[in-house]
Amino acid sequence: MNPIFKKTDKLTLLVTTFGGSGMSPKAPGTAGSFVAAVLAYPIAMVSFQGCFALLALLVFFIGIPFVAKVLKDTGSDDPGWVVIDEVSGQWFAFAFIAPASLITYPWLILLGFGLFRFFDILKPLGIHQLEKLPGAWGVMADDLLGGAYVALILLVICKLFNL
Fold it and tell me: Which of 5, 53, 64, 147 would disulfide-bridge 95, Cβ 3.0–4.6 Å?
């Protein structure tokens, strides 16, 4: 185990790495987003319209104190292994899509994953500016905005193709 992980408690580590997905030695943000995207399908099977927006916001606000603790414990600005922000953003990407559409057209989940990674890595359209918010707010907010952009793109695609 990476020694940096030992600088914080196990619950904080479990939350911020989203069950350990952020501990991936390569591309931890992609790993965290991928796990969130994979979970989107079974969540859609048992959810309701607006569930992903609710989940994303819940993860966002629960994540803030845990991320703040990691930043304090490690002295880092934004450790790559903290992926709870990617989970919040990835789930917000599906906020405006009917769960039935995600089940019927699972390629929407794949598209949402790809688009979210694009926005998360390149940080266009003001996303980079949100990273400048203080502490955990900056870590979490940029991903939520990236997810919002993806949600709008997916909504337009669903409307255009009557999905």
Answer: 53
Of 119, 124, 127, 131, give the one whose Cα is nearest residue 82: 131
Task: For residue 7, tell me if it sits in a domain.
Answer: no
**Is 70 among the domain residues?**
yes
More confident residue, 46 or 9: 46
Q: Is the dihedral of CA 118, 145, 143, 33 positive or negative?
A: negative
- Is residue 17 predicted with pLDDT exceeding 80? yes
Distance CA 160, CA 163 (A): 8
Let me know: does 33 contact 83? Beta carbons within 8 Å: yes
Q: Which residue has the tokens 């319209």?
A: 49
Structure tokens at 111: 């598209």
Structural domain for 139, as ranges: 29-160
Q: Alpha-carbon Rg of the chain, whole angstroms? A: 15
- Please give the tally of structural domains in the chain: 1
- Is the residue at 5 inside a domain? no
Q: At what angle do helices 51-74 and 28-45 cross, to 10 degrees?
A: 150
pLDDT value, residue 5: 65
Q: Is residue 149 part of a domain?
A: yes
